[in-house]
Amino acid sequence: xxxDLLARYLSYFLIVQILFxxxxxxxxxxxxxxxxNGVYKVIxxxxxxxxxxxxxxxxxxxxGVFLFLFIRFIYIIFRxxxxxxxxxxxxxxxxxxxxYFLFYFSWGLNYYRVPLADRLEISKGxxxxxxxxxxxxxxxxxxxxxxxxxxxxxxxxxxxxxxxKEIYKMTKIGYKNLSQKHSFLKYKAASIKSSxxxxxxxxxxxxxxxxxxxxxxxxxxxxxxxxxAFTASHEVAHQIGYAAENEAxxxxxxxxxxHTDPYFQLAGHITALKYILNELYKRDADLYKTTLxxxxxxxxxxxxxxxxxxxxxxxxxxxxxxKGYSTYLKVNKQKDGIKSxxxxxxxxxxxx
Length: 352
Hints:
By secondary structure, the chain is mainly alpha-helical. Helix content is 67%, strand content 3%. It has a 3-stranded mixed sheet with strand order 1-3-2. A hairpin with a 4-residue loop joins strand 2 and strand 3 (216-219). Helix 7 (164-179) crosses helix 10 (245-257) and helix 9 (228-239) crosses helix 10.
């Protein structure tokens, strides 16, 4: 009886929380000042300082335990032949209430902070195809220069000489350099780890994620290693409080291209190139083909390796996972869902 009473109160609290989040989301300046640059900084630093030194993912272990308990709960429902539906319902609502609180208190309110473009004082709006093409050519030139400085041969794929854990440690260098220009992007107490569920992430189509309950940046250890630097930098952007995927992508780009290491720089510029080429193709397919032909052949080999990797994990359920994540983004004010990733092009053009 006491358990049901607690679950009932937690269920009421869930309703209150949902209403509060919907209300406070209308005041991004308030969230920016008191949460993103106040409460969240303390919480995130505590999480990273407490768990960052542990070599494996505590968050993934918690997810594993939660999955076990969920399966056990389903088993109990069937075992009892649905005789306690009211108690089951209250238990579910009570659990959701606790998770909802932990999610938004620990990280989720960052979805409603002041847009990154405003913090960087970037003008937002349309840009011409000429501007897009010019930036694309500059990016390709930079990639070709970096690639040749490493391989001394424009037809060879480049091989990253670092191990995964080395890349994780090196990621903070890019943020240290970036923070000299944008102090609000400072990163302390690193906590970047390979996910224990990397195979599952591969089938779901994800390169990494941030665990909002432990503050750990998780990287899919299966992905091609040349993409590690950008993925790790992207997840760190989430760690420092930028929840929107397009903004995390852009910060990841700034961090990698601010790095002193050419492999990090390549990872950032190549990721940016994918987005701007996609936009150029939409606007002018012929110009896209002409521009793409200027890219070193060796880079195509790296891109092909990445394509082969993801094709290997293609499955009928991946679109379902992607659609589910897109819905999640829309619920958190990312109106275009996964398609909001393309907004990175807008940030790139206007920033430069």
